[in-house]
Amino acid sequence: MTAQPSLEAVERRLSLPAGAADWNTYAPEFEALKKAELSAATVPAWLSRWSELSARLHDVSARLSIHKDLHTDDQASQDRYQNFVAEVMPHALRADQALTEKLLAVEGYAPAPDFALNYRRFRDAAALYREANVDLGVTHEEQISRHSVITGNQKVRLGEEELTIPQAKQRMDDPDRAVREAAWKALQASNMGVAPELDAVMLDLIKTRRQFARNADEANYRDYRWKELDRVDYTPQQCQAFHEAVRDEVVPLAGQIVGDIAAQLGLDTVRPWDYNRNNLLDPQGRPSLKPFKTGAELQTLAEQAFAGVDPELAARFKQMRENGLLDLESRAGKMTHAYCSYFPTSNEPFVLMNVVGTAEDVRVLFHEVGHAFHGFYSGDAQPLVWNRWSPIEFVEIPSMAMEFLTLDHLSHVFSPEELSRYRRKQLEGVVVFLPWAAQMDAFQHWLYTEAPENVTIADLDAKWLELDQTFHPFIDWSGLDENIRAKGWQYYHIFQAPFYYIEYAMCYLAAVGVWREARRDPAAALAHYKAALRLGSASPVPELYRAAGVEFRFDREHIRGLMGFLKEQLGV
Q: Where is the Peptidase M3A/M3B catalytic domain (predicted)?
């Protein structure tokens, strides 16, 4: 049996050598790169030195960030990260800008094919750069960290128990409606308790983000963010068309699925405590699947599942288990969101989760480890740090596709009946996720382009309420406090990753396509999967999709076709 690293071992993995968080450690190397004689012939070697230096800085940032997320209740951990953000990263950003300008000025340089795309990105980023936004970025990070601290220290009082947010959410899966209602009300009481603090953070973030745009001479923050995220393959108008397509093509199907479950359970209406998009109720009223008890058990069952998909993937996961690259247990003071981070110097990913023993935890682990595989494979194939991972329009495909590719390799986890339930929930989950994704994206388009200059929290609440009534009309809120419903915008990505959400929808649509190929030819689907991951960020988004065996599409016709496929699979 593979040994499970303790939290202490994980923290040793995150430890830093003396001086690693000190700008003076890196300044001489940046200065040497700046002063180096540079010609077209010497650019490749110079780029390698710059890449290695950037990787070291990224490593330090990742380790400090993870450590603060493991200890949101420890001010020293928060301060170490914030000091790095305030004292080191502004110098690094300025140094990167100087090196970028030096590279772009080299006469006669034509980038190699594997660097051509990032050379163009360097040029575009240099044009967007403004000195005023460097210091403003420090303020932005401080504001984001306030959100992490507030939510990471949230507690839920349920009767005589004090629970973490993930533990309380687990009660929402109980087949007993009274238990679900009590858990939902306790969660909402906790959320409303911190809502005023989060309101204040959001108003500060809106002000900061608008200033980013003004400093860069952009009309609004959406236009600024579009360039910052290098969105060159689609337009805001296509995103808005996606919102409309989901409203028309997906919301009715989602309502049908949720309504059918409610009817089978004898519910005359679907109340908020009857709906969890991540884990819909079982139509037979059976308890939620609980395939494991501890993080160690989850790791063991996951490694066996990966072995069924591909021995090489299983070996990668085993490497993570043995090297302190997983922290899965739910603990007080730990950030509640799950994510995958990355240490480029060693080409190693790190997964943080908060597991409580559910089948949803199994799915989320497969998702986050799919990201980890992306890091491994792109790092193996792409020496330059900028060429690793991929544009965000593709980055969720490795994770979401892994949710599907493992479906046929879980007989050691679930009985045939349980596996059928798990598989159905996975497919239903795609359908009910798309309205949420469209709502999240539509809210941000409004917030950063249409909301008034003096936008208030009441404006945000009203817009969210309007959108929720459009994209989730099948949930009955009658007699409940609409203020609770209106606070649904207080969600991780709205605070910490603005305009990063429609990518989940794009990639879920593509992941269904990967699974459709895997149903026909598992070996070919896996080969395409790995090939696309190896391309990293050195190929345009449409080419990455083609390499994975799917199309880069999220238009109405494509959505309608995939919903038809899912209807067939679900028998609805």
A: 172-559
CA gap 346, 491 in Å, rounded: 32
Where b means 16+ CB within 10 Å and e means fewer, 98-113 reads: ebbebbeeeeebebee
Give the confidence band of 2 by pLDDT, cuts at 50, 70, 90. Answer: low
Report the candidate in 540, 542, 559, 561 with the shortest Cα–Cα distance to residue 551.
542
Per-residue pLDDT, 107: 96
Reading the block at residue 92, the tokens are 């690094």
Q: pTM for the whole thing? A: 0.90
Alpha-carbon distance of 93 to 97, in angstroms, equals 6
DSSP string of 239-307, one letter each residue: HHHHHHHIIIIIHHHHHHHHHHHHHHTT-SS--GGG--TTSPPPTT-PPPP---SSHHHHHHHHHHHHH
Residue 1's pLDDT is 46
Picking from 537, 502, 506, the residue whose alpha carbon sits closest to that of residue 121 is 537
Residue 249 predicted with pLDDT over 60: yes
Of 377, 321, 350, 341, residue with least CA distance to 528? 377
Angle between helices 113-128 and 221-228 (to 10 degrees): 150
CA–CA dist 272, 278 (Å, integer): 13
Mean pLDDT, residues 295-302: 96
Q: How far apart, in whole angstroms, are the C-alpha atoms of residue 515 and residue 407? A: 9
Q: What pLDDT, in 10s, does the model give residues 118-153?
A: 999 999 999 999 999 999 999 999 999 999 999 988
Q: Residue 77: CB partners within 8 Å, gap ≥ 6?
A: 67, 68, 70, 71
Q: How far is CA 106 from the centre of its chain?
A: 37
Q: pLDDT for 69-88, tens place per residue?
A: 999 999 999 999 999 999 99
Mean pLDDT of 34-54: 98
- SS3 of residue 329 by DSSP: strand
Amino acid symbol at 69? D
